[in-house]
Amino acid sequence: MYIVQVASECAPVIKAGGLGDVVYGLSRELEKRGHCVELILPKYDCMRYDHIWGLHEAYLNLWVPWYGGAIHCTVFCGWVHGRLCFFIEPHSGDNFFHRGCYYGCNDDNMRFAFFSKAALQFLQQSNKKPDVIHCHDWQTGLVPVMLYEMYKYHGMANQRVCYTIHNFKHQGIAGAEVLWGTGLNRGDYYFQYDKLRDNFNPFALNMMKGGIIYSNAVTTVSPHHAWEAHHTDVGCGLSHTLHIHEHKFQGVLNGIDYDFWNPEVDRYIPYSYSKTDFEQKAYNKKALRERLNLSHTDKPIIAYIGRLDDQKGVHLVHHAMYYALNLGAQFVLLGSATEHGINAHFWHEKHHLHYNRDVHLELGFNEELSHLIYAGADMIVVPSNFEPCGLTQMIGLKYGTVPIVRGVGGLVNTVFDRDYDQKKPPEKRNGYVFYQTDQYALESAMERAIGLWYEYSEEFRQLALQGMEYDYSWNYPGAKYVEIYDQIRHQ
Predict the structure, then answer these.
(1) By three-state DSSP, how is residue 109 classified?
(2) 229 plus 296 within the same structural domain
(3) CB within 8 A of 25, min separation 6: which ones?
(4) What gap in Å lies between CA 237 and CA 114, rounded to an integer?
(5) In whole angstroms, what is the distance from residue 394 CA to residue 153 CA?
(6) Cα separation, 383 vs 442, whole angstroms
């Protein structure tokens, strides 16, 4: 199959979050399976050009209709760690992608509406005929709309669209200007409820809703998150739209890159290890203590790695730190806060705990250190309020670091409680799960985990090894997406 990914990110050249990792990881897996994959991305001024090989002008005269005229674009081509990528650079006073940032501008709606239009215009003018166009998040929600309302009448009638939603929180709420800009024009038509009109604001258009309605298949990043989006407020107002289109909506769990996140080959840790020589993990624990100036003592290390914000359950992260210390464990935190108040609070805690050699707070993000923490910690806590997929727990499992998670989103699909899980037999369980958002639920799970480490060390070791048995690589998601592509190709 010939597949074109249209997205606003692709790691490591353009990465603001998990979206970039998925676009790259899925593309690579599809190529491993023998499919032809190309990516279309914006050419941001601030992307990591050092991760692009052979960047050159590939298409000099792309004219993209915009309002009453057209914007001249150059399309560059280059390879990002083996993936063939096309980067669209518009030449206009709008400077759509020369902002020193990927997101966060007042005209983000128009920037990505233009990118969606330019991607389709490039496919049409260059006579590319992909079997499937795979779009991601609200930034490309207008691609299927324009494909089926405009471009199918200009030589693109056979293309099919798979649309993946990574984050329901940001939906691309816009006004009629996106219609006039892209040439969709007919406000009375697109402002109907069964088209692009936002479910709760009759005067707004919703790009993500357009993506759901016009795509041939819609996915999100874990089966449980798909259920949550359909049946709870996690859908952020789109539950009814998902209900109408439930026949084409499903969750496909993301994967992680085992060439990068794997203690057998990890170049960032001092001692490689696997299930067969698991005792080597203890040397990484010693190295982690030396790196962070923790005391060398017979205690478990509990870690938190991730953003410090409401989504990640920051109040429970804070509580987990003190509760771990009270139960005789050490605690390591690596993360950066997105809000000033949360940042100030954790800096206060860092200074307050400065002389306590059983805790270390690393406020910021350090890729190299994160690998050592995964390899050196005994447990990792993931107390998220919501978590569409979650990579932290999957990485923890690969490193034999027992996850303690809240039962939401993809965490439900990947972590199975040692004591209470009904879906897995005891020899297949791999961690601890709690469900409520209060501190008592978290304490219950942490107490069971720390208690097992102290009282039944061999059983704790077995639990860690059972976690390492799980395969959360891109192998299964890759096969699942190929199945979805085949289904929509033959519709």
Answers:
(1) helix
(2) no
(3) 11, 254, 255, 256, 257, 474
(4) 25
(5) 44
(6) 8
Residue type, 279: E
- 220 and 289 share one domain: no
Total tally of structural domains belonging to the chain = 2
Nearest CA-CA partner of 389 in 489, 290, 331, 311: 311
Q: Which residues of 337-350 are buried (b: 16+ CB within 10 A; e: fewer)?
A: beeeebeeebeebe
- Find the helix packing angle between 439-455 and 314-326, rounded to 10°: 40
Domain that holds residue 350: 278-468
Is residue 262 domain-resident? no
The single residue listed with the structure tokens 């009270």 is 326
What residues are paired with 433 via a beta bridge? 405
Q: Which of 389, 392, 416, 414 is nearest to 225 (CA)?
A: 389
Chain centroid offset of residue 208 CA: 17
Residue labelled with tokens 């998670």: 405
Q: At what angle do helices 108-125 and 142-149 cross, to 10 degrees?
A: 50
CB 428 within 8 A of CB 462: no
128 to 38, 141, 416, 481: CA distances (angstroms): 10, 20, 45, 21
Amino acid at 461: R
Nearest to 391 by CA among 8, 80, 22: 22
Q: List, for residues 252-291, the tens digit of each pLDDT value.
A: 999 999 999 999 999 999 999 999 999 999 999 999 999 9
pLDDT confidence tier of residue 338, bands split at 50, 70 and 90: confident
What is the spatial distance between Cα 324 and Cα 330, in angstroms, rounded to a whole number?
7
Q: Which residue has the tokens 């799970």?
A: 445
Determine the Cα–Cα distance for residues 417 and 427; give it in Å rounded to an integer.
11
Token pair for 361: 């707070």
In a domain, 271, yes or no: no
Together in a domain, 311 and 338: yes
Residues, the chain = 491
Confidence (pTM):
0.94
